[in-house]
Amino acid sequence: MQFHPLLATILTLPLALAAPTPAPVHTYVLSPLAENPATAAVNNILPRANAADPSFTDDAKFQSELLAHHNHLRGEHTAGQLVWDPELARVAAELTNTCVYEHSYAARNGGPYGENIALGYPTVRDTCYAWGEAERASYTPAEYEHPSYNSRMGHFTQIVWVGTQRVGCARKLCDGRWFVACEYSARGNIRAEEYYKKNVLPPVATA
Question: May I have one GO cellular component term (predicted)?
Answer without folding.
Answer: extracellular region
